[in-house]
Amino acid sequence: RAIIYAVGGKKRKLEVEGEKKFVGKGVSYCATCDAPFFKNKTVGVVGGANAAVEAALLLSEFAQKVYIIYRKDKLRAVPYLVEKIKQRKNIEVLYNNTVKKINGKISVESVKLDNEKELKMDGLFIEIGHVPNYQLAEKLGVKISEDKRVVVDQNMSTNIAGFFAAGDVTTGSNKFDQIITAAAEGAIAASAAYKFILKGDD
């Protein structure tokens, strides 16, 4: 028998007032899904890594104005993405800022930053990473990395024989959490699991 552990992860939340209230009413965790709903509107993106910058670039094709709100003084995204941001006239980066509260009546109307400034906007996209669903694997004795991912080798094998893992929950693909890499890891894990089962039947 073999197990392939491919449970993914969940989007990291801001955990601020108004976030839960306005999910689906201006608060989003998926720019690819929701960008078209904000045509000619003003939106914000929280985060400074690749996912946040890519979301901002996509949103800039629809929205009139895009704010990137980042808690540090320099974006963590790869240089070519940062350069693209500079070329988009409707994107503004607000460094050294965090969102403290999301305001609105029926939907998002504004956000309050930690400097008490209120920024009017119609939507807020939260792109601050995700939390892998590692807990069950850990309980079963599978080795977990410091950043709470299932440790795998190139064959998607773990420290337990017959226990394979794939996707966003693993340390594989250089932690590049994309559908294409998760699918590739799944194929590798399936092949390795099949070989493991055949070997056990010998």
CATH class of the largest domain: Alpha Beta
CATH topology of the largest domain: FAD/NAD(P)-binding domain
| Number of helices, where a helix is a run of at least 4 consecutive DSSP H or I residues | 5
Order of helices and strands: EEEHEHEHEEEEEEHEH
Largest sheet: 5 strands, parallel
Structural class: alpha/beta
Percent strand: 15-25%
Q: Quick one: CATH superfamily of the largest domain? A: FAD/NAD(P)-binding domain
Q: What is the straight-line distance between the termini?
A: 13 Å
Sheet with the most strands: spatial strand order: 3-10-4-5-6
Specify the helix fraction band.
25-40%
Number of strand elements: 12
Question: What does this protein structure show overall?
Answer:
It is built from 5 helices and 12 strands. With 202 residues, the chain is of the alpha/beta class. The protein folds into 2 domains: 11-126, FAD/NAD(P)-binding domain; 133-201, FAD/NAD(P)-binding domain (3-Layer(bba) Sandwich), CATH 3.50.50.60. α2 (50-59) links the parallel β4 (42-46) and β5.
